[in-house]
Amino acid sequence: MLAALLMICLLFSGGCTAFRPSPGIHVSPAVRQDIVNIALQYKNAPYQWNGESPGGFDCSGFVQFVYRQAGFEIPRTSTRQFRSGHEVSRPKLKKGDLVFFKTWKYLGTILSPGHVGIYIGGKRFIHSPSPGGAVRIDHLDNGYWKTHYKGGRVLLK
Known about the structure:
Blueprint: H1 2-13, H2 29-41, E1 52-53, E2 56-57, H3 59-69, H4 78-82, E3 86-88, E4 98-101, E5 115-121, E6 124-127, E7 136-139, H5 143-148, E8 149-154
Antiparallel strand pairs: 1-2, 3-8, 4-5, 4-8, 5-6, 6-7
Protein backbone atom coordinates (compact mmCIF):
# COMPACT_ATOMS: atom_id res chain seq x y z
CA MET A 1 0.00 0.00 0.00
CA LEU A 2 2.74 2.45 0.97
CA ALA A 3 4.71 1.59 -2.17
CA ALA A 4 1.64 2.25 -4.35
CA LEU A 5 1.03 5.60 -2.64
CA LEU A 6 4.66 6.58 -3.12
CA MET A 7 4.48 5.62 -6.82
CA ILE A 8 1.34 7.74 -7.30
CA CYS A 9 3.01 10.65 -5.55
CA LEU A 10 6.08 10.37 -7.78
CA LEU A 11 4.04 10.07 -10.97
CA PHE A 12 1.74 13.00 -10.35
CA SER A 13 3.86 15.42 -8.43
CA GLY A 14 7.38 14.92 -9.69
CA GLY A 15 8.50 13.79 -6.24
CA CYS A 16 7.32 14.00 -2.66
CA THR A 17 10.01 16.20 -1.18
CA ALA A 18 9.42 19.91 -1.25
CA PHE A 19 12.16 22.36 -2.17
CA ARG A 20 11.93 25.26 0.24
CA PRO A 21 14.50 28.02 -0.17
CA SER A 22 14.97 30.75 2.36
CA PRO A 23 11.89 32.95 2.91
CA GLY A 24 12.72 34.95 -0.19
CA ILE A 25 15.47 37.17 -1.47
CA HIS A 26 14.86 40.86 -0.91
CA VAL A 27 15.23 42.71 -4.19
CA SER A 28 14.37 46.12 -5.52
CA PRO A 29 11.68 46.76 -8.13
CA ALA A 30 14.58 47.39 -10.56
CA VAL A 31 15.76 43.78 -10.15
CA ARG A 32 12.22 42.55 -10.81
CA GLN A 33 12.15 44.69 -13.96
CA ASP A 34 15.52 43.22 -14.98
CA ILE A 35 13.98 39.74 -14.80
CA VAL A 36 11.13 40.90 -17.05
CA ASN A 37 13.55 42.57 -19.47
CA ILE A 38 15.66 39.42 -19.70
CA ALA A 39 12.56 37.30 -20.35
CA LEU A 40 11.37 39.69 -23.08
CA GLN A 41 14.69 39.30 -24.93
CA TYR A 42 13.74 35.67 -25.64
CA LYS A 43 10.27 36.33 -27.02
CA ASN A 44 9.74 34.10 -30.07
CA ALA A 45 12.46 31.60 -29.03
CA PRO A 46 11.17 28.16 -30.08
CA TYR A 47 9.59 25.61 -27.80
CA GLN A 48 11.62 22.46 -27.22
CA TRP A 49 10.68 19.71 -24.79
CA ASN A 50 13.27 19.66 -22.00
CA GLY A 51 14.85 22.76 -23.56
CA GLU A 52 16.71 25.19 -21.37
CA SER A 53 18.56 27.47 -23.79
CA PRO A 54 17.68 30.14 -26.39
CA GLY A 55 17.82 27.41 -29.03
CA GLY A 56 14.65 25.98 -27.47
CA PHE A 57 12.85 26.21 -24.13
CA ASP A 58 10.16 24.29 -22.34
CA CYS A 59 8.19 26.29 -19.78
CA SER A 60 10.23 25.55 -16.66
CA GLY A 61 13.52 25.62 -18.56
CA PHE A 62 12.66 29.13 -19.76
CA VAL A 63 11.86 30.30 -16.22
CA GLN A 64 15.03 28.77 -14.78
CA PHE A 65 17.15 30.25 -17.60
CA VAL A 66 15.76 33.76 -17.09
CA TYR A 67 16.28 33.64 -13.33
CA ARG A 68 19.83 32.31 -13.81
CA GLN A 69 20.59 35.17 -16.22
CA ALA A 70 19.41 37.54 -13.47
CA GLY A 71 21.73 35.85 -10.95
CA PHE A 72 19.28 33.58 -9.11
CA GLU A 73 19.32 29.78 -8.96
CA ILE A 74 15.90 28.14 -8.86
CA PRO A 75 14.78 24.53 -9.37
CA ARG A 76 14.41 23.13 -12.89
CA THR A 77 10.91 21.64 -12.97
CA SER A 78 7.56 23.40 -12.67
CA THR A 79 6.68 21.11 -9.74
CA ARG A 80 9.74 22.15 -7.77
CA GLN A 81 9.35 25.77 -8.81
CA PHE A 82 5.76 25.67 -7.53
CA ARG A 83 6.97 24.33 -4.19
CA SER A 84 9.53 27.13 -3.92
CA GLY A 85 9.00 30.50 -2.34
CA HIS A 86 5.63 31.49 -1.01
CA GLU A 87 2.12 31.65 -2.34
CA VAL A 88 0.97 35.03 -3.61
CA SER A 89 -2.61 35.87 -4.49
CA ARG A 90 -3.35 36.89 -8.05
CA PRO A 91 -4.14 40.55 -7.21
CA LYS A 92 -0.79 40.85 -5.39
CA LEU A 93 1.41 39.46 -8.16
CA LYS A 94 4.49 41.56 -8.90
CA LYS A 95 6.78 41.55 -11.89
CA GLY A 96 9.07 38.53 -11.77
CA ASP A 97 6.70 36.34 -9.74
CA LEU A 98 5.87 32.93 -11.18
CA VAL A 99 2.40 31.95 -12.35
CA PHE A 100 1.33 28.31 -12.59
CA PHE A 101 -1.36 26.52 -14.51
CA LYS A 102 -2.96 23.12 -14.24
CA THR A 103 -3.09 20.81 -17.20
CA TRP A 104 -6.48 19.36 -16.34
CA LYS A 105 -9.11 21.91 -15.38
CA TYR A 106 -10.64 19.84 -12.56
CA LEU A 107 -7.96 17.34 -11.54
CA GLY A 108 -5.45 20.17 -11.50
CA THR A 109 -6.44 21.16 -7.99
CA ILE A 110 -4.83 17.99 -6.62
CA LEU A 111 -2.04 17.50 -9.17
CA SER A 112 1.17 19.44 -9.63
CA PRO A 113 1.11 22.29 -12.13
CA GLY A 114 1.65 21.45 -15.75
CA HIS A 115 2.83 24.89 -16.86
CA VAL A 116 4.69 27.94 -15.53
CA GLY A 117 5.38 31.48 -16.72
CA ILE A 118 6.81 34.76 -15.44
CA TYR A 119 4.44 37.57 -14.50
CA ILE A 120 5.36 40.79 -16.33
CA GLY A 121 2.65 43.13 -15.01
CA GLY A 122 -0.73 44.27 -16.32
CA LYS A 123 -2.20 40.76 -15.83
CA ARG A 124 0.23 39.46 -18.47
CA PHE A 125 2.86 36.74 -18.33
CA ILE A 126 5.60 35.46 -20.62
CA HIS A 127 6.05 31.74 -21.12
CA SER A 128 7.13 28.97 -23.46
CA PRO A 129 3.96 27.10 -24.42
CA SER A 130 3.49 23.68 -25.93
CA PRO A 131 5.25 22.07 -28.91
CA GLY A 132 5.07 24.04 -32.12
CA GLY A 133 4.94 27.28 -30.16
CA ALA A 134 7.44 29.92 -29.18
CA VAL A 135 8.02 32.11 -26.13
CA ARG A 136 5.14 34.58 -26.04
CA ILE A 137 3.09 36.89 -23.85
CA ASP A 138 -0.45 36.00 -22.80
CA HIS A 139 -3.08 37.56 -20.55
CA LEU A 140 -4.15 35.89 -17.31
CA ASP A 141 -7.79 36.68 -18.15
CA ASN A 142 -7.63 34.81 -21.47
CA GLY A 143 -10.26 32.05 -21.33
CA TYR A 144 -7.87 29.08 -21.23
CA TRP A 145 -5.35 30.61 -18.82
CA LYS A 146 -8.07 31.97 -16.55
CA THR A 147 -9.78 28.59 -16.15
CA HIS A 148 -6.50 26.68 -15.71
CA TYR A 149 -4.78 29.10 -13.29
CA LYS A 150 -3.35 27.19 -10.30
CA GLY A 151 -1.57 29.94 -8.39
CA GLY A 152 1.29 32.37 -8.08
CA ARG A 153 4.55 32.04 -6.20
CA VAL A 154 6.86 34.78 -5.05
CA LEU A 155 10.52 33.77 -4.94
CA LEU A 156 11.78 37.31 -4.45
CA LYS A 157 10.64 39.87 -1.88
